[in-house]
Amino acid sequence: MKVDQLMVGMMGVCCYILSCEKTAKAAIVDPGGDEQRILDAVSESGLDVKYIIATHGHPDHVCGNRTIQEATGAAIVMHEADDDFFSQDQVKNYFSMLGLEASPPTDTRVKEGDTIDFGEVSLKVIHTPGHTPGGICLYDKPDLITGDSLFVGGIGRTDFPGGSHSELIHSIEQKLLNLPPDTVVWPGHGYGGSRSTIEEERNSNPFLR
After folding, report:
1. Which of 104, 97, 156 is nearest to 132 (CA)?
2. According to the model, what pLDDT value does residue 117 have?
3. Could you tell me if 151 and 189 are in contact, meaning their C-beta atoms sit under 8 angstroms apart?
4. What DSSP designation does 131 have?
5. 9-49: pLDDT as tens digits
6. 127 membership: H or E segment, kind and range
7. Is 2 exposed, middle or buried (0-12, 13-18, 19+ CB in 10 A)?
8. For the chain, how many structural domains are there in total?
9. 149 with 106: CB under 8 angstroms?
């Protein structure tokens, strides 16, 4: 699997273009703004985008879903718990204060252990609640897309509705830190080129001690 990381939007989201190098089938993860730049990158690489995957439902990560879907016809994928949670009127009203567009309806709901397949790539869905009820990570050895569950030297905030610090720590410790130490961590926010490994986070992340 080829991983291309783009920093997008007003909140510095790490968007990922994941592609199968043999078939040019692809998925876009968390298109949180700068949609034309994302689409230009896809076009320049000759990719056929099958899925738009949300690691979680926060508007800064899904605000580009509509534009990307209209341009590519790709299916929007979200964990069932976040699909339910972010469909609630009170939740929509709370996050509308960010001034970012909500995602169109989810086409494919996933859960722990499901796979998202395109070309010869098979992404395993790892449910990591805590930042949101339906936060997910995407794993295709050796790459792990962590969204806002695990950052380089940090973790996602848990003070928004639906967040739980204890649940997030449990998710990371029980589901992520037991992956192979050389697993590459691709976070949901960070400076351009931001990445780490499970071993580095296990040894040096101050929130996991």
Report:
1. 156
2. 98
3. yes
4. S
5. 999 999 999 999 999 999 999 999 999 999 999 999 999 99
6. strand 121-127
7. middle
8. 1
9. no
In this prediction the pTM is 0.97
Domain containing 171 equals 2-208
Which H helix or E strand runs over 136?
strand 136-140
CATH code, domain carrying 149: 3.60.15.10
Q: Fill in the DSSP letter of residue 160.
A: S
Tokens of residue 170, six digits: 């449990």
Query: What tokens were used for 62?
Result: 């899904």
Buried b (16+ CB within 10 A) or exposed e, 36-60: eebbebbeeeebbbbbbbbbbbbbb
Please report the pLDDT score of residue 78 as a whole number: 98
* Integer CA distances (angstroms), 112 to 65, 71, 78, 120, 192, in order: 22, 29, 11, 21, 29
Q: Which residue stretches of the chain have pLDDT < 50?
A: none
Pairing mode of beta strands 48-53, 75-79: parallel
Element (H, E) at 197: strand 196-197
The residue written with tokens 């509705």 in the block is 161
Q: DSSP per residue over 46-77, as a string? A: T-EEEEEE-SS--HHHHTTHHHHHHHH-PEEE
CB 51 within 8 A of CB 118: yes
